[in-house]
Design goal:
Strand content: 15-25%
Strand order of the largest sheet: 3-6-7-2-1-8-9-10-11
Radius of gyration: 17 Å
Distance between the termini: 17 Å
Shape: globular
Order of helices and strands: EHEHEEEEEHHEHEHHHEHEH
Number of strands: 11
Largest sheet: 9 strands, mixed
Helix content: 25-40%
């Protein structure tokens, strides 16, 4: 039985419905129903109603600190099941990063200044949690820009970690916010262990969501185009990269996704 880890920016019904949030639910649910064993993660955004969603903390998985720029940030893991499905969702939480009302922007639509740090915390938090779960996925599938650092960290920081070292990494590209800039110190946030200045040299110092997703492209084993609204420059970058690429936009995607996963091992 193939084991697939889904790391999502959004999942309905926990946040408002968008194409990204819809696929955040639909892909794990459909692939699970196809016979795969799955796990799925998302950030515990501040606009999630924990009572309505029946989230509860998993004490045995919480308690680790994630260091970013030499500052420790406590990792809290919560869990809930999507009503009407067999899909269980793990939520990455931290009081400083994920207890505000907005997701990536404030009430005025202005991007939070620490979105980069939050992405670092989320990516490393997921990987550390998978280690604790003692569950080794065959495929790790990332959906949404907040997941973009996962491929980099797996290939550079965790390449010797048995839980993820042998997994094939897939990134789905969606139409993403075009105006979200990341903090000027973002590269400093990413650097840790084998992720050095040299690692990040190919990328602009002033990074936005597209530049961040280029990192995901470069460290993934496969890329899936999910819709037509993707920035053309990013799409061209992905098609030119030395990774497998597929354009899968139809609703009957399960067999195509599974075939794509299998192709990465050949």
């Amino acid at each position: 039985m193939k084991k697939v880890l889904y790391i999502n920016h959004d999942i309905i019904p926990y946040v408002a419905e968008t194409e990204l949030a819809r696929m955040g639910k639909l892909v794990p649910k459909t692939i699970q129903e196809s016979g795969c064993e799955i796990r799925t993660f998302m950030p515990r955004w501040g606009n999630i109603n924990e009572r309505r969603g029946q989230l509860h903390e998993v004490i045995r998985l919480s308690g680790l600190n994630i260091a970013i720029k030499e500052i420790d940030h406590p990792l809290i893991i919560k869990v809930a099941s999507i009503v009407g499905t067999k899909v269980q969702v793990y939520f990455i939480d931290n009081e400083e990063f994920f207890q505000r009302k907005g997701q990536t922007t404030d009430a005025n639509g202005k991007a939070y200044k620490d979105n980069g740090e939050r992405a670092v915390f989320f990516a490393r938090g997921v990987i550390e949690t998978i280690k604790k779960l003692r569950w080794n996925p065959d495929v790790i599938h990332c959906q949404g820009w907040m997941t973009s650092l996962v491929p980099l960290f797996i290939k550079k920081l965790y390449h010797d970690e048995p839980a993820v070292a042998n997994a094939k990494i897939v990134t789905s590209l969606f139409e993403e916010p075009k105006k979200i800039k990341l903090e000027k110190s973002f590269k400093e946030c990413i650097k840790f262990g084998e992720v050095t200045d040299e690692t990040l040299k190919p990328y602009k110092d002033s990074m936005d969501v597209n530049e961040m997703q280029k990192i995901a492209v470069d460290y993934s084993d496969g890329i899936i185009q999910v819709d037509e609204g993707i920035d053309p420059k990013l799409l061209d970058y992905a098609k030119a990269a030395n990774v497998k690429f597929a354009n899968i936009q139809d609703e009957d995607f399960a067999a195509k996704y599974l075939k794509f996963y299998d192709s990465l091992s050949k």
